[in-house]
Amino acid sequence: MRISVTVDGVEYRDDVEPRTLLVHYLRERLGKTGTVVGCDTSNCGACTVHLDGHSVKSCAVLAVQANDREVTTIEGIARDGQLHPVQEAFHQNHALQCGFCTPGMIMQAIDLLADNPDPDEDEVRHGLEGNLCRCTGYQNIVRAVRDAAQKMSPGSGPEAERVDETAVVDRAPMHAGGGE
Amino acid sequence: MTATAEPEVGKARRRKEDARLITGATRWTDNLQLTGMLHMAVLRSPVAHARITSIDVTEAVKMPGVLVALTGQDLAAEQGSLPCAWPITEDMLAPPAPSLAVDQVNFAGEAVALVVARSAAEAHDALAAIDVDYEDLPVVLDLDRAVEDDADLVHPDLGTNKSATWVFDSAEAGTGSDVDQAIADAEVVVERTFRQQRLIPAFMEPRSVVVDPSPGSVTMWSSTQVPHILRWMLSAVLGIPEQQIRVIAPDVGGGFGGKLQVTPEEVLTLLVARRLGKPVKWTESRTESMLSAHHGRDQVQRITISARRDGTVTGLKVDLLADMGAYLRLVSPGVPILGAFMFNAIYKFPAYRFTCTNVFTNKVPTDAYRGAGRPEATFAIERIMDELAAELGVDPLELREQNWIRHEEFPFTTVAGLTYDSGNYEAATARAKELFGYDALRAEQVERRANGDPVQLGVGISTYTEMCGLAPSRVLGALRYAAGGWEHAAIRMLPTGKVELITGTSPHGQGHVTAWSQIVADRLGVAFEDVEVLHGDTRVSHRGMDSYGSRSLAVGGVAVVLAADKVLAKARTVAAHLMEVAEDDVEFTAGTFSVRGTSTTMALGDVVVAAHVAHNLPDGVEPGLDAEATFDPENFSYPHGTHLCATEVDTETGAVKIRSYVCVDDVGKVVNPLIVEGQVHGGLAQGIAQALYEEAVHDEYGTLTTATLADYLLPSAVDLPHFTTDRTETPATSNPLGVKGVGEAGTIASTPAVVNSIVDAVRHMGVSEVEMPCTPMRVWKAIHGRGDGVPTTPGAGGGLGSIDARGGAE
Ligand code: FES
Ligand code: FES
């Protein structure tokens, strides 16, 4: 089947098998390997992306269902070379270890904050319930999401998804280090 | 080159690793696409024990995109037997362990055939067209039953299900007296049988292997913790010259011991890639992972403790049955043996005997899982200390205090023969009690009991220690482990003043790149940002023993220090030569050499350049400042701590809610407190999950009924409490960094704290044991249906979101 789908701001037209899952289309056809697969029962949330601005588990959506729609992945949320505040907060709060759950966690957290810009600890925990992390025990993830909420207020919504000044300054050590 | 003002070690540096992990610019094995790459899928046995009477692949080969379908018979001549590197006794029995079953399957999930196709989907489709006929054999599942004389046998050729029995006796070893005598003479004896349920490591990244064969060399990318060991073992198993194998562990998404393995799929991917002359990828599904990647724990523990009426412990006797599953994998037999040295824990037992029998069953093989042997030991001792306290009618914390090694008694040689170098149990406990509000919670407990509150409060204690930093090579040798326990590091001083550090450790979430950079920055006085850490590729990091057993910092980190010191020693010689002074007059601080008593200085960066261009070096000095070092520790390290858990147990529903969790750990000196805290959190999560949620359950046919994340209850964010963590710091004396290791501490300590707390909440209702995981059903039955035979296999759980039933929400 022929589909047309916008992923991270770029429009793609492709022939896909009807059974192809969105996550496999993203990873194998588009090379969007930032989005990963952690399970086969839609329990882990590692594959979470946004479909028309709302989080979905991309292993539970067929590629054809994304036809004429807009997909945002972890690779598409930094703007103009600046990290999204939630990405930044995950870094600052040591909210990741192996990082395998991280793309899904971040995409879910952004969705959560769009619905509830100032969640308390319990609301964050419930909002991330469908995303499993085996490394962190969640405490720093919760801290990161609440920290991002602080940084993104006032005025949440799509505009606030853009990075703020402080976050950019704070980020310096990471870029200087250049990663591994 | 800039000098660093404040010390890097001890700083909460944000991790260098994060940059690509938070942006999706990752390098998981499954991300790799090579030109002409083919895909392998594996057919797995649905039955636990059967003879394979026939396998027909003719239809599968005709399926679209399929290149080849192979059975165990096809590979029998070349696949060898998967390695077991830890023959714990001279007469240990080990069956051959083919990667692809040849004529018999011994667990449900064992690989029986494979397909290679152009796409992963086509390979999987073709599996359905393979026809296998099985002739059922009797299934051996229960440990106690498996060791009876008339038991059915997993491997009839071995004549028994017992693989080996390993004994440590303090009277025989000369480290203590005779435990049977101690028990016979005792004023108080408490006996308990505990069950360590089977767990699944459940790293989040499913395993994946890519093999690129080319004539004369083969490159394997694998989601492994142990690239160096893997390379060695692949060579040994398959007879490929080691120098022709390159193993790369790219980004690896967690391991927890679960990727400390040489897997059937690694061998098979290599064999088919070589056969077809094309790159081949295999990536498992989550269900495959649960069904075939090794499991952990699974012991029956019979514990006898003896004491005087005044509470002084006099003896400890441990009898274990440890479930190996169907085969011995890389270190399966040694895992329970690591516990042998830890049952006596922080207490001064005069007499001790440990006996462990490793047993085959028709289940997935067991092997290392976070803590490996030590959580099992810690659980048993910390549980039985509570039982002894109840028997004696004393506060369990006071009983511990009465028997533990006092801080002034270090170094202390234990009844198991280890010498604990340092520790301060008093300090950690005092801090934990303070943070926890111990006395207030005890008072509330009394009140709730008096009021007959349907929700009872329990206080659980775990004052643990562990041996980590695996390990002194000679000790491993004495334990019949096939490899050493050293670690290697190399430093390349680049002419621009930047530094490349090559480590033999293989991080998969632990943040070595950041921590090692901090160590190097301090030692050499270079900027944190100027250090690049390389690892996980046997071409780049040619020597290493990889990451497990909380060894990376305490062994690998120390190798980094030693390598840096070698760089400096040579740099000092060169600097003295260039400044035309005697070496003894040269001092080094914060990246700069200076001549004592003068204002003459020379930055390390200038010495590096001078050594690199080699225009003016002292006679006999080779150009360059690169250095390498290998560190073999003389002792293990012994982190310890006090964990306190308060649970509210609803006596009407059996639901357990963790109200407060406090831990104060002493992991010695800390390189990066942020990373240490993260390790503690993650460890706690896994230990608490063992207490409350997780269990690999098999039905009577040996089918794993918890083979998905819907059935195997990995805790979500709502299932875990907020942790209050703190540290005390007693430096290890066994290494120059004073570090002890932290990867496993949280897991080791937390399980008994939670279970002790649950039992404590309802002990006045006649409960003295709740089997793990302490599900509402088990807790309720323990309270209301004592003697009803609490089921040991509750079946698959309720899936995520079943927090109401499990009561785990904060
Ligand atoms: S891959 Fe696990 S939920 Fe999608
Ligand atoms: S950071 Fe490893 S699974 Fe979350």
Automatic annotation (TrEMBL), chain A:
Per the database record, which ranges form the 2Fe-2S ferredoxin-type domain? 1-77
One Pfam family per UniProt: Fer2_2
Which pathway is this protein engaged in?
Answer: Alkaloid degradation; nicotine degradation
Kindly indicate where the leader peptide sits in this chain: none
Write out the entry's keywords from A to Z. Answer: 2Fe-2S, Iron, Iron-sulfur, Metal-binding, Oxidoreductase
The answer to keyword Iron-sulfur applying to this record is yes
InterPro entries documented for this protein: 2Fe-2S-bd, 2Fe-2S-bd_dom_sf, 2Fe-2S_ferredoxin-like_sf, 2Fe-2S_ferredoxin-type, Beta-grasp_dom_sf, Diverse_Oxidoreductases
Listed name of the protein: Carbon-monoxide dehydrogenase small subunit
- What species was this sequence derived from? Saccharothrix carnea
From TrEMBL, chain B:
Show the InterPro entries listed in the entry.
Answer: Ald_Oxase/Xan_DH_a/b, Ald_Oxase/Xan_DH_a/b_sf, Ald_Oxase/xanthine_DH-like, AldOxase/xan_DH_MoCoBD1, AldOxase/xan_DH_MoCoBD2, AldOxase/xan_DH_Mopterin-bd_sf
Transferase in keyword set: no
- Signal sequence extent: none
Q: Could you tell me which Gene3D superfamilies the record lists for this protein?
A: Aldehyde oxidase/xanthine dehydrogenase, a/b hammerhead, Aldehyde oxidase/xanthine dehydrogenase, molybdopterin binding domain
Looking at the record, which segments are called Disordered?
786-810
Residues in Aldehyde oxidase/xanthine dehydrogenase a/b hammerhead domain copies: 23-138
Q: What cofactor does its activity depend on?
A: Mo-molybdopterin cytosine dinucleotide
A single MF term (Gene Ontology): iron ion binding
- Record carries keyword Zinc-finger: no
What Pfam families does this protein's entry cite? Ald_Xan_dh_C, MoCoBD_1, MoCoBD_2
Ordered alphabetically, the record's keywords are: Molybdenum, Oxidoreductase
Protein name listed in UniProt: Carbon-monoxide dehydrogenase large subunit
Q: Which organism is it from?
A: Saccharothrix carnea
Organism lineage: Bacteria, Bacillati, Actinomycetota, Actinomycetes, Pseudonocardiales
